[in-house]
C-alpha cells in the first residue's frame, strides 16, 4: 500500500469520508466532470465514494474507473501543475496530471501512434514538425520514426513533466534522444504565434488539459488561425477530438468550426485506448491547410 | 440510496470491509477475473476496496469500473442465476447477472446491433434464425428488423431473465412482440442438438457466461460441430469474441479452431461498447458454413 499519497481532489469538502482506517493522505481522487463535458452539468457533485489506496478516475458523478496504487513512485508540484506517478496492478506505471489520468504504460502507444502517424502519413515527406505539449515524449518517439523528418520542435510549458518522464518512463521519453528534437520550455500558444508564417509541415497538439476542453479549443477562431498561419500551405494539424459516445456529441460542430479556418480537408478518426474508454475513446481530428 | 442490496461477490471472505457506516447489505461487488481470462491467474485476489452503495465491475484485481446505484429496481434468484437491476446515475438501468454486468440502457444497442446485422446482412434473404441466450430481447429486436426473416427461435434457459426484461426494460424486450418469435425455455446446447440438420440460415450466440469463457466455447470442437450441423450450407454463426486489448490475445487461435469446423469464411469484427470497454470492447466473430 502506498505510504505518501496526498489529496488530489476537486471537491475535497464534499467527500464522504468514512472508516476508522481512513487516512485522508491515502485518498487520491479526481473528476473530469467539469472538464468541458457540458452534459455533466446539473449532476450532483457530492456523490463520490472514498477508496483509500486507489486512484479514482471519475468520468462524471456516479461513475468512476479505479486503479489500485501498488506504489507511489513520484509526486510533485511545479508552478503549473501537480504530477503523480504510481505503479498500478495491471497497467504498469500510471501518470496523473492535476488529477487527470494522462497515460498508462499499458496502452499509451495507441494514443501516441494515432496522433502522429495519420497526420505524418497524410502528406508526402514531412520535414518540419511541431509538437505542442506532449512532454512525456511518446509522440516525439513516434515522429522520430519518420525518416523524412529533419527537424522536430516540442513546446512544453512544464519542465517537471519532461524530467519526470525521462526518469520514470524511459520507454516513452526515449523520444527526446533523437538529435532532430529541439525542446522549447514555453507556452504553446505564445510559441505558435512567434514562429514565421508557414514554418511547419505538421503540427500536433497534445496540450488540451492546460489549454482547455477539446471542443472549446477547437472552436477558438484565433487559436486555429494562429495554427493555420504556422503551417505551410498543405500542412496538417492533428489533435484529439471528442468521443462519439459523449451524449452531447459535438464533433460535427468542431469540424464545421475548423473548416472555416482550414480550407483543406478536415477528417475525424478514432481508435480505442482502454485508459480513455469513457472519456473519449481516443478520437482525433486531422486538418489540412490549403 | 438503495435499501435492499445483497452481497453478490465471489470473494466475500476477503473483502476489506471498513467504516462505521458500512453495511454489508450495501455492498455489491463482482469480478470477472476468473471468467476465462487466464491472464489474471496469479494476480492477488484479496485486493478489493469496499464501496457501499456502488456496483463494482472488477475487470481483474487492482482495477474496477464502479457505478453508483441510485435505486435497486429488482433482485431475484432463479434456479440458474441471480439477477440484479439498478438505476445508475448516467447509464439508465443496469442489469447484473450472477455478478457480471450484462448491459446498460445507454449502450446495449451497440452490442445487439453488432451481433445481429453483420451476420444477417452477410447472406441474401435469411429466413430462419436461432438466437441462443439473449433473453433480454435486444437481439430479437434487431433480428425483427430484417423483413426477409420468417421464423425466429430463441432458446433461453432462464425464464426469470425474460420476465424481468419484459417488466423493467420494455425498449429492449420489445423484440418478443414480433409474431415471428418463438420462445423455447431450454438449454441452448441441447436445443441445438435436437434440431434437424441444416435448419437455420443464421445462429446467433449470446450465452457465453453460462456456457463458459468465450475462447473455450469457441475452441470446443463438439459444440462447433453441433452448431455447424444446425446451420444450412452457407449459413452463418455470429458470436462474441475476445478483445484485441487482452494481453493473452487468443483470437488468432479461436479463428484457427473455428476454421477446422466452418469451411467457409471466418471473420473478426469489433465495435466499442463503453460498458464492456475493459472486458472485450465488443468483438465479434462471424463464421459461415459451406
TrEMBL record, chains A, B:
Output the Gene Ontology terms for molecular function: spermidine synthase activity
- Entry's EC annotation: 2.5.1.16
Q: What is the active site of this protein? A: 206
Q: Which Pfam families match?
A: Spermine_synt_N (PF17284), Spermine_synth (PF01564)
Q: Which GO terms describe its cellular component?
A: cytosol
Domain of life assignment: Eukaryota
An example Gene Ontology biological process: spermidine biosynthetic process
Q: Which CDD domains does UniProt cross-reference here?
A: AdoMet_MTases
Positions of the PABS domain: 52-289
Broad enzyme group: transferase
Keywords attached to this entry: Polyamine biosynthesis, Transferase
Q: Which HAMAP family match?
A: Spermidine_synth
What PANTHER family does the entry give? SPERMIDINE SYNTHASE 2-LIKE, SPERMIDINE/SPERMINE SYNTHASE
The Swiss-Prot or TrEMBL record describes its family as follows: Belongs to the spermidine/spermine synthase family.
The protein in question is named Spermidine synthase
Amino acid at each position: 500500500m502506498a505510504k505518501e499519497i496526498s489529496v488530489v481532489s476537486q471537491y475535497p469538502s464534499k467527500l464522504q469520508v468514512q472508516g476508522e482506517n481512513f487516512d485522508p493522505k491515502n485518498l487520491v481522487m479526481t473528476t473530469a466532470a467539469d472538464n468541458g463535458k457540458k452534459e455533466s452539468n446539473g449532476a450532483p457533485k457530492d456523490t463520490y465514494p472514498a477508496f483509500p489506496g486507489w486512484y479514482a478516475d471519475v468520468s462524471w458523478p456516479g461513475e468512476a474507473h479505479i486503479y489500485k496504487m501498488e506504489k507511489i513512485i513520484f509526486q510533485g508540484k511545479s508552478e503549473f501543475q501537480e504530477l503523480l506517478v504510481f505503479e498500478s496492478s495491471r497497467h504498469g506505471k500510471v501518470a496523473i496530471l492535476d488529477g487527470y489520468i494522462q497515460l498508462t504504460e499499458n496502452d499509451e502507444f495507441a494514443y501516441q501512434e494515432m496522433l502522429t502517424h495519420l497526420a505524418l502519413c497524410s502528406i508526402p515527406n514531412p520535414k518540419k514538425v511541431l509538437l505542442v505539449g506532449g512532454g512525456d515524449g511518446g509522440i516525439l518517439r513516434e515522429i522520430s520514426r519518420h525518416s523524412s523528418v529533419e527537424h522536430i520542435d516540442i513546446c512544453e510549458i512544464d519542465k517537471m513533466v519532461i524530467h519526470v518522464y525521462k526518469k520514470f518512463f524511459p520507454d516513452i521519453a526515449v523520444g527526446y534522444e533523437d538529435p532532430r528534437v529541439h525542446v522549447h520550455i514555453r507556452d504553446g500558444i505564445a510559441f505558435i504565434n512567434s514562429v514565421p508564417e508557414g514554418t511547419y509541415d505538421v503540427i500536433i497538439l497534445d496540450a488540451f488539459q492546460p489549454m482547455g476542453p477539446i471542443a472549446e479549443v477547437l472552436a477558438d477562431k484565433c487559436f486555429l488561425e494562429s495554427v493555420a498561419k504556422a503551417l505551410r500551405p498543405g500542412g496538417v494539424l492533428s489533435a484529439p477530438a471528442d468521443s462519439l459516445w459523449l451524449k452531447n456529441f459535438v464533433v460535427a460542430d468542431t469540424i464545421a468550426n475548423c473548416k472555416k479556418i482550414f480550407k483543406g480537408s478536415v477528417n475525424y478518426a478514432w481508435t480505442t485506448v482502454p485508459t480513455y474508454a469513457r472519456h473519449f475513446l481516443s478520437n482525433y481530428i486531422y486538418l489540412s491547410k490549403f
